[in-house]
Each structure stands twice: as C-alpha cells, then as structure tokens.
Write a structure and sequence with these properties.
Blueprint: H1 3-13, E1 18-19, H2 22-27, E2 41-43, H3 48-61, E3 65-68, E4 85-88, E5 95-99, E6 104-108, H4 113-120, E7 125-126, H5 139-145, H6 152-155, E8 162-168, E9 174-178, H7 190-194, E10 203-210, E11 212-213, E12 217-225, H8 228-240, E13 247-252, H9 253-263, E14 272-280, H10 282-298, E15 302-307, H11 310-321, H12 323-327, E16 335-337, E17 343-344, H13 350-364, E18 367-372, E19 378-385, H14 390-409, H15 425-431, H16 436-446
Parallel strand pairs: 2-4, 3-4
Antiparallel strand pairs: 1-2, 5-6, 6-10, 7-11, 8-9, 8-10, 12-14, 12-15, 13-14, 13-18, 16-19, 17-19, 18-19
The chain binds flavin-adenine dinucleotide.
Length: about 475
C-alpha cells in the first residue's frame, strides 16, 4: 500500500489506531477458519465517522475492505481474500443504553456478547442467542453472520432480536435502518438485509437489540443411546410431542470420547447422547422434565441423569462447548478442521442425516465428529485431517461435498449459523442457485466498486481447499 494512503488512513484514525507491521498484518490474516491471507493494513477506528471516512477513501481508491469483529468466524468471512484494509471494530465497544422497560438495548458493533450479557444480568434480562464463542464474538459479527446457538429452538437467532442498525454503506454514507420499537410495519426491512451479509454490503457500527427477561429456572437431562440414530430420533420425538426444550445438544461417540479424554468430562461411554435443557417457571420446568424423561425412555435412553444444580449444568454445558477444542487433541498428527461444520436439516431428518454422515466418513476414511444444536436441526461435523497430507485434504473435500449434498437433498441448508465466507461458498451457490442473481444485483447497487469483502459468498470461484493456513504441499492458491 502506498505510503501516501497509509498517511491518509493515519490522519483519519490517529496514531496507534492502525498498523502496517508485518506481525500485525499476518495475525489479522486469520479468523477461526482453515484460511489465511495477509492484508495490507489493519485499522481500528473508534467512531462511525472514522469508519465512514475510511470507507470513503477506500471507495475512491478501490481498496478492498474487510470488517472484522473478534475473528471467531469459522468459514473465512473475515479473511481478507484480496488483501487491502481490515477494519477491526473491537475498539467501538460501548454499551450505550439498556432500557429494560422498553425491551431494548443499544450498543456499538464491537461489544463482546458476554460483556453485553454481564450488563443485562443485574436487570435479570438477556440477549438469548448464546453462541459457543460468547466470550469473544462481537455483536456486530453476530449480526453480520446471523449467529445463534444452543437455545435457538426456543429463542431464535440474532436476526430475531435486531430492531435497528447504524450502517456505513460502501460509499461511506452513514444510514440508520429499523427502529427502537418492537413493532414497525411497512417499508423495506433493510435491517434484515444486513443480517447475514458477512461484511459484503456495509459496516455495521451500532446495533439496537430486543432483550427479554431471563427464565426463572433451568434444568438438564443427559440421555445416552446405543445408536446415533436413536439420539436423532429422540430429538424429533421431543419436538413432535409437543415439547419446547430450551436446548437439545447431540454428541456422537467420537465427540464424547474426545471431551472425556481432553477435559475428563465424565460423560457416559455411549454411542451418542442428548443433553436436554428446559427452562421457565419452576412448576413448568418440573412438568417438562417428567415429559422429557418419558419421551427419552420410549426411544431407549440409557443411564439418564438429571440436575438443576447450576454447577453440574455448567459442567455438562462446558463439556459440550469443549467438543471443538477437544477434537483437536483427538489423534496425533490430526487437526480438527471447520469444513462441513454447520448444516441444518428439517428436524425430522436428523436421524437420516447423522447416519448418512457416518457412512460418508467411512467411505473416505475420514474421522468425523458429529454434534450440534440438534433441536433446531442444526448439526456440526468436525473433520480430523492430517494438514500436511494433500490426500487427507482431498478425502476431506469429498466428504464435505457428500455431506452438503445430503443436507440439500434432505431439504436443509449448508449453513445454519456460522455463515458462508469461503469454506462453504461453492455449496451455498449450489443451494441458493435461483437467488444468486438477485444477491449480485443488490451487491452491485450498494457496492458498485465491489470494495466490501470481495470474492466471498456468491462471488467465490473455485474449490474450498485454497488459501489454507496449513503447510500443505499441493494447495490450490
Ligand atoms: C469456539 C467457537 C464456537 C462457536 N460457536 C458458535 C455458535 O454456537 N453459534 C454461531 O452462530 N457461531 C458460532 N461460532 C462462529 C462465530 O463465533 C460467529 O460466527 C460469530 O458471530 C462471529 O463473530 P465475530 O465478532 O468473531 O466476527 P468475525 O469472525 O470477525 O466476522 C465474521 C463475519 O462478519 C463480518 N463482520 C464482523 N463484524 C462486522 C461488522 N461490524 N459489520 C459488518 N460485517 C462484520 C466479517 O467481515 C465476517 O464476514 C463459533 C466460533 C468458535 C471459534
């Protein structure tokens, strides 16, 4: 990047708020995906006006921009594919208003999910999506990826809580979309347009979120099964009962073994298990627990454990949250990669999907751990690959293709919550084939110079085994 441009950026954000040092640029080339590309500059603005001035400059000079929250995204959304400027929003981290009487809060895009939860806790309120990355991910990143988590079955995902946004468009114009009211009737729902846009349409600088009271009581049941299929059947049987648990987490034997080995979680040694959480008024929780037990036993659950003790429930939840890191320590020379990591199928199709995933793993000789927020049909698979072996990557890629094809055939989607980025782009294009033209038209109208996160989602060309962060001999860069 020209020194003159660097100086203009410095004038906009001030000293200590940008860097062209190679160590900083290299670090900002990663998110939590398998991909890496080094940007030309990293900038940390402190206000929407600074963001606006940066974007105006970039638009004039056609410099690619990638907005970034905490970089916890799992599919390369924040990786600066075309170099250029990474705009890190984490210094815009003020919680500006908490208005429990109006059921909303307003915060800057860089506020971390857990910090917002801490601010809401004294009021006994919550912003429910609960992503597994809660300690780090930002509210802006959550909106940009429509993040959700284990409680989406009952409480929905981020999009269900976005009332309004402040956005810097690719021209640098600052706009406000949506409202602070729980209802707003007509007009294009532009706030929804930016939900899931993954930094391709503008930079979200401020978010107005609906908040809800925290449930009075929670309890959990852990139910083991002798097949993965039965665990899947338990999920759809609970929903069809009808019951509305606040979460049902599914784990297969690979994931159970991994967390037992890595953190001594003490989970039962079974083929699969469901962790079922119910919440609400104490009387309702007691009734629902009894019903959950009946349903689980009717499917053949073994070794049922039940608790409403906060410590025990936290240990169970933590063991589920540890799956991703535990799988990384599963076998010598293998790493757990985020490839087909986040599909969703109609809930009744879960048993068929999980059985097919096991067959696909066997077909290509790949170890696949299957887990997920199964109550809403959202399944994660993590593949264990040898990162230095081209053959391992090729087998992984074939398994990914077959897993995504299975999900599309079952009426599902390639991404339930993590987004598209690079890692899912070709399969997303297959799934949404009829919508790609409309997406491209919207992108062109808002971003005629294509400066915002270029080359991702509908624009991606090629296969997913590219721009790898690992030293692999024949990667296709
Ligand atoms: C251990 C772990 C567990 C996870 N669990 C979950 C889970 O349960 N549920 C879930 O949904 N996800 C989960 N994720 C994925 C990830 O945490 C979410 O996608 C999260 O919303 C990303 O937030 P971030 O601030 O890190 O965004 P980043 O990774 O920095 O960015 C993600 C995308 O959003 C864009 N973006 C970021 N900020 C802005 C902004 N202000 N304006 C415009 N675009 C922006 C980026 O360009 C990029 O395309 C998990 C990740 C990890 C590592």
């Amino acid at each position: 990047m020209d020194q003159d441009v660097v100086e203009q950026i410095g004038t906009i954000v001030g000293e200590n708020n940008y860097s062209t040092r190679i160590a900083d640029r290299y670090t900002y080339g990663f998110d939590s995906s398998i991909h890496h590309v080094t940007p030309d500059i990293v900038v940390q603005p402190r206000s929407a006006e600074q963001v606006s001035n940066l974007v105006k400059l970039a638009n004039r000079l056609k410099i690619p921009i990638v907005p970034r929250g905490a970089g916890t995204g799992l599919c390369g959304g924040a990786v600066p594919l075309k170099g250029g400027m990474v705009i890190d929003l984490t210094r815009m981290n003020a919680i500006k208003e908490v208005r429990v009487e109006d059921l909303y809060c307003v915060c800057e895009a860089g506020v971390v999910y857990d910090s917002l939860q801490k601010a809401l806790a004294p009021f006994k309120f919550t912003f429910p999506p609960t992503p597994g990355s809660a300690e780090a991910c930002t509210v802006g990143g959550m909106v940009a990826t429509n993040a959700s988590g284990m409680r989406a079955i009952k409480y929905g995902g981020t999009r269900d809580y976005v009332l309004g946004l402040e956005v810097v468009l690719p021209t640098g114009e600052i706009i406000n979309v949506g409202t602070r009211t729980l209802k707003n009737a007509s007009g294009y729902q532009l706030e929804r347009l930016f939900v899931g846009s993954e930094g391709t349409l503008g930079i979200i600088t401020q978010v107005t979120l609906r908040i809800v009271p925290k449930p009075k009581k929670m309890a959990m049941i852990v139910a083991g099964f002798d097949t993965l299929e039965k665990a899947g059947k338990c999920v759809s049987a609970l929903i069809a009962k009808p019951l509305l648990p606040s979460a049902v987490e599914l784990m297969d034997s690979t994931c159970i073994r991994a967390v037992n080995k890595a953190i001594n979680a003490g989970l039962p040694d079974v083929a699969a298990l469901c962790m079922i959480e119910v919440d609400g008024d104490p009387k309702v929780v007691a009734d629902e627990l009894a019903e959950v037990v009946k349903v689980a036993e009717s499917i053949g659950a073994v070794g049922l454990q039940q608790s409403d003790d906060a410590g025990q429930m936290a240990r169970w939840t933590n063991s589920r949250k540890s799956v991703m890191s535990a799988l990384s320590r599963y076998g010598a020379g293998l790493v757990s990669v985020s490839l087909a990591d986040d599909m969703a199928v109609p809930i009744s199709k879960i048993p068929e999907a999980v059985v097919e995933f096991s067959r696909i793993a066997d077909r290509y000789g790949v170890i696949v751990g299957t887990y997920g927020h199964a109550a809403d049909g959202n399944l994660h698979t993590k593949m264990l690959l040898n990162p230095e072996s081209p053959e391992s990557w090729r087998n992984g890629e074939k398994a990914v293709r077959d897993i995504f094809d299975t999900c599309i055939r079952l009426g599902g989607t390639v991404t339930g919550e993590h987004g598209v980025g690079i890692s899912k782009a070709p399969y997303f294009q297959k799934e949404r084939a009829t919508a790609l033209g409309a997406m491209a038209a919207i992108k062109k109208a808002l971003d005629p110079n294509n400066i915002m996160n270029p080359g991702k989602m509908q624009e991606w060309e090629g296969c997913i085994i590219q721009h790898l962060r690992y030293p692999c001999a024949d990667q296709k860069n």
